[in-house]
Amino acid sequence: MTILLTSVLLATGSLWQIIGQLSTFGAIILVILVAMSLVSWTVIFQKFRQFRAIDGDTRNFMQYFRRARKLDEVAGQAQSYRHSPLANIFRSGFEELNTVKGLRNEVGGLSDRVNALTDSDFELVEMAMERRLNDETGILEKKVVFLATTGSSAPFLGLLGTVVGIMDSFWSIGERGSASLAVVAPGIAEALLATIVGLGAAIPAVIAYNWANNRLKYINNSGFSFVLDFIARAKKEAM
Predict the structure, then answer these.
(1) 196: which residues sit within 8 A by CB, 6+ positions away?
(2) How far is the C-alpha of 55 from the C-alpha of 182, rounded, in Å?
(3) 164 and 26 in contact (C-beta within 8 Å)?
(4) Please, are residues 170 and 115 in contact by the beta-carbon 8 Å criterion?
(5) Is the pLDDT of residue 151 over 50?
(6) Which of 42, 50, 62, 172 is the least crowded, having the fewest Cβ atoms under 10 Å away?
(7) Distance between CA 237 and CA 115 in Å, rounded?
(8) Domain of 47?
(9) Per 3-state DSSP, what percentage of the chain is helix, strand, and coil (rounded to 5)?
């Protein structure tokens, strides 16, 4: 939105006039807001591509997981869905399951069967999968916090620039002893530009943050459901 508004002002030629008359403080505020807006849009596009890749791999992985008769059949195929958090959680759970089975077999000299496992062993597998789920969620949360920071701070930075611009207008009135448009226009224009850029940076960031946060909640809930499905499948194979 900031880029769109800037383009409109550039087309009319008025933006260069306003920038040419900016105070030092107003210019600093404007540069910070534009930088925050550019970084926010970069994060938005990155997260959009990331979540789209996650959706595709997760959908394909879950179709294969539901069709497979045994967990062993899924283990090799899970490597192909590296973008899916559920596939990564499956690998962690399957590795932990094999580790626990190996320890049980070493202690009791039992055959390689899941039915040698106890409820405590399955709890270890579940904890390993939940730990991986937390790691996957943490990876996806990276850079999202910047959108929240931009959404909450950009309006106040814009307001700060607005206040400074208005103060500059009043200072010009007192210094020149005139309240003509030529005297107050530069300060008012600076104030309005700071407001526009501040809101232009904040609004897309807030919308994108809410969208990304909802996606993260959905992925997290799906992960917990998948952990339960995995444990249930493992116990059924033990029967």
Answers:
(1) 5, 158
(2) 56
(3) yes
(4) no
(5) yes
(6) 42
(7) 8
(8) 2-237
(9) 90, 0, 10
Cβ atoms of 22 and 190 closer than 8 Å: yes
Count up the domains in the chain and report the number: 1
203-206 contacts, C-beta under 8 A, 24 or more apart: 203/1, 203/151, 204/1, 204/2, 204/37, 204/40, 204/41, 204/44, 205/36, 205/37, 205/40, 205/147, 205/148, 205/150, 205/151, 205/154, 206/147, 206/151
Q: Quickly count: other Cβ atoms within 10 Å of residue 54's Cβ.
A: 19
CB 85 within 8 A of CB 140: yes
Query: Both tokens of residue 99?
Result: 């580790």
pTM exceeds 0.70 for this model: yes
Give burial (CB, 10 Å; 0-12/13-18/19+) of 102: exposed
When pLDDT is averaged across residues 120-140 and rounded to a whole number, the result is 92
Buried b (16+ CB within 10 A) or exposed e, 203-218: bbbbebbebbeebbee
Report the amino acid identity of residue 231. Answer: I
Cα end-to-end distance, the chain, whole Å: 59
Residue 43 pLDDT > 70, yes or no? yes
Q: Is 81 in a helix, a strand, or coil? A: coil
Q: What is the pLDDT of residues 67-87, one digit of tens each?
A: 888 888 888 888 889 899 999
| Residue 87 near residue 58, CB atoms below 8 Å | yes
Query: Residue 159 in 3-state DSSP?
Result: helix
Angstrom distance (rounded) from CA 153 to CA 44:
17
Model confidence at 114, pLDDT cuts 50, 70, 90, reads: very low
- Structure-block tokens of residue 237: 């194979």
